Amino acid sequence: MRGSDVAVVLSASFIAAHAQAQTPAPQTPAPEELTRRAIERRAVEVVIWGMPAVNYDLMYQALVRARAASDRSSTGAPVTQF
User: What b/e string do you get for 42-79 counting C-beta neighbours within 10 Å, with b at 16 or more?
Assistant: First the structure.
């Protein structure tokens, strides 16, 4: 390596070390903040896991109505829309 290359490498490593030394250490969040984050995370999980259950129930209700309409139409009774 030439002298100028060594100087560039040394100055770059010095700048990186200096920047890392000035970076503040990550702080531990307060207990209230951790509690708030946990509640928000659980709320998101409830929505994500609840959506398939709601969709299943809606499809089941539609099936029940469709069967009831089919039964009424096959017996000759008038079909009413709800």
Answer: eeeeeeeeeeeeeeeeeeeeeeeeeeeeeeeeeeeeee
Tokens 């709800």 map to which residue? 82
Per the confidence metrics, is the pTM higher than 0.70?
no
Distances (CA, A) of 21 to 12, 14, 16, 27, 46: 14, 10, 9, 16, 42
- Alpha-carbon span 51 to 42, nearest angstrom: 14
Residues 6+ apart with CB under 8 A from 78: 72
Cβ atoms < 10 Å from Cβ of 39: 10
Per-residue pLDDT reduced to its tens digit, 1-19: 555 666 666 566 667 666 6
